[in-house]
Amino acid sequence: ECAYYQFCTSFPVGSMLAQTWNEDLVKRCGEMVAEEMREYHVDIWLAPGMNIHRNPLCGRNFEYYSEDPLLTGRMAAALTDGVQSKGDRGVTIKHFACNQREDHRRQSNSIVSERALREIYLRGFEIAVKLANPMALMTSYNLINGIHAANQYALITKVLRMEWGYEGLVMSDWTTTGIGGSDPVLCMRAGNDLIMPGTEADISEIRKAVQDGVLPIEDVQSCAGRLIKTIRRLTESEEHGET
């Protein structure tokens, strides 16, 4: 067998970029990321990470920006603007939401008031969505007030889509169903369009729920429609020579 290597640029991590407080610099960094994505034929980048620095033991803190939601939102928006500046590449802001710890990441339950949720933990995402319109968003592993983030209709449909006007793709974090504990049927019901990486069991459960009338087919069609819209957005930009 022949090994095939793709050597990537070591771009500065999120917390270092945030220390610059320089949106133009961060946008330029995003433009350079997009150039590398084109080189390696990557359409959607699974970044930026933008949860709040709350627990110093969180293993993802290096890729998150700050303990401040305003700085977090502005930095993520700038990076998104850079990556998406030519329309042919996209970002995935993550992890939505309250992904601030490392232990039992898939089963932890973040108990948080609505005021704290909106003023601290969701505010950065809101800023990034409204300023930069990221192509995709990734939900988190954890539960929020007893419900898995990927199953949160109130969070994904009511807040993200209805209140903030987001029309992009929402995907799950990897293996959020199965060992992750979230429900694939509730993912579709909540508006979590894409389950990653997805399993045969997920497909079977979704099909059975539709057949039994538990899951409206319209919910599945809405999820599929947003996925198709994202694919078309990427392919049409390539057809028009925007790469």
Radius of gyration: 18 Å
pLDDT averaged over residues: 94
Give the SSE order as H and E letters: HHEHEEHHEEEHEHHH
Helical residues, percent: 40-55%
Kindly report the oligomeric state of this protein.
single chain
Low-confidence stretches: none
Strand line-up in the sheet with most strands: 1-2-4-7
Structural class, by secondary structure, is alpha/beta
Q: How is the main sheet built? A: 4 strands, parallel
In DSSP terms, counting alpha (H) and pi (I) runs of 4 or more, how many helices?
9
Overall 3D form? globular
Range of strand content: 5-15%
Q: Would you report the number of β strands?
A: 7
Our measurement of the CA-to-CA distance between the termini, rounded to an integer number of angstroms, reads 33 Å
Question: What are the main properties of this structure?
Answer:
243 residues, alpha/beta, 45% helix, three-stranded mixed β-sheet, four-stranded parallel β-sheet
